[in-house]
Amino acid sequence: MEDYKFLFKVVLVGNAGVGKTCLVRRFTQGLFPPYQGATIGVDFLIKTVEVEGEKVKLQIWDTAGQERFRSITQSYYRSAHALILVYDISTQPTFDCLPDWLREIEQYANPRVLKVLVGNKIDREDREIPSHIGEDFARANEMYFIETSAKEADNVEKLFMEIAAQLTHEALVSRSHYNGISGEVSSSVIESKDGSESQCCKFS
Ligand SMILES: Nc1nc2c(ncn2[C@@H]2O[C@H](COP(=O)(O)OP(=O)(O)OP(=O)(O)O)[C@@H](O)[C@H]2O)c(=O)[nH]1
After folding, report:
1. Cβ(65) – ligand 1 distance below 6 Å
2. How far, in Å, from the CA of 17 to the mean position of ligand 1?
3. Is the CB of 22 under 6 A from ligand 1?
4. Any atom of ligand 1 within 6 Å of the Cβ of 85
5. I need a surface site. Which of 17, 33, 37, 82 has the fewest CB within 10 A?
6. Where is the signal peptide (predicted)?
7. Buried b / exposed e across 174-186, counting CB within 10 Å, b at 16+?
8. Which of 13, 21, 23, 147 to mutate to test the pocket of ligand 1 (most atoms within 8 A of CB)?
9. What pLDDT, on the 0 to 100 scale, is given for residue 188?
10. How would DSSP label each residue in 14-54?
11. Tens-digit pLDDT profile for residues 166-203
12. How wide is the angle at C-alpha 149 spanned by C-alphas 128 and 12, nearest 5°?
């Protein structure tokens, strides 16, 4: 039997080219890959981390940003424990599309899914979206917010580790819903969260 306490599914979404694949590769493999073309459909990578002394397995799903794959990627939303919505801080249209992505999330994801807004490519000097605009958008939509650079490995570890910590915390708090046989946390853990709890704050 595999040695881990919790398994969490984390799904990345956002426009084509914002850096979803690079964020996942940076975190799981510690590298910034040469451009390998757009993601086709959905890919996943796994990384086991340690949180509060427990082994936590993150199954990270990297979806294709291109419109033509939308029907495939939608089917991955429902089982997600966390959704990472990525835009590129140097490309305004990727930010302007966020409301469309949120509508998709609302339609297909678990209502209690942990949502994180990520402004990627902060190493670039041609920034178009100031940090506070991203942060305001996240706050208004009850999401966590963090800015990253997959290229420079800035905040990437922090992004995934904060998600792992938050989900582990929720799972431990909701222990009665924990399925101890498979070691997997069912999505009911997310549903059972106290509805009054605010999901909105900055990873700091
Ligand atoms: N400067 C900079 N470029 C980045 C960063 N992250 C990704 N890129 C570049 O952005 C381009 C797209 O990156 P991908 O990771 O393939 O983007 P994606 O969101 O997975 O795209 P799709 O698979 O089409 O949805 C590549 O040329 C990357 O090298 C970053 O943090 N900084």
Report:
1. yes
2. 5
3. yes
4. no
5. 37
6. none
7. beebbeeeebebb
8. 21
9. 37
10. -STTSSHHHHHHHHHHS--PPP--PPPSEEEEEEEEEETTE
11. 999 999 888 645 454 444 444 433 333 333 334 445 56
12. 95
Q: Which of 24-38, 130-144, 147-161, 166-180 shows the lowest per-residue confidence on average (mean pLDDT)?
A: 166-180
* Ligand 1 atom 13 nearest Cα: 19
Q: State the distance from the centre of ligand 1 to the C-alpha of 179, rounded, in angstroms.
A: 37
Domains and their CATH numbers in the chain: 6-202 (3.40.50.300)
Q: 80 C-alpha to center of ligand 1: Å?
A: 22
Q: Provide mean pLDDT across the span 102-130.
A: 96
Q: What per-residue confidence (pLDDT) applies to 198?
A: 40
Q: For position 106, what pLDDT does the model report?
A: 94
For residue 180, the CA-to-ligand 1 centroid distance in Å is 38
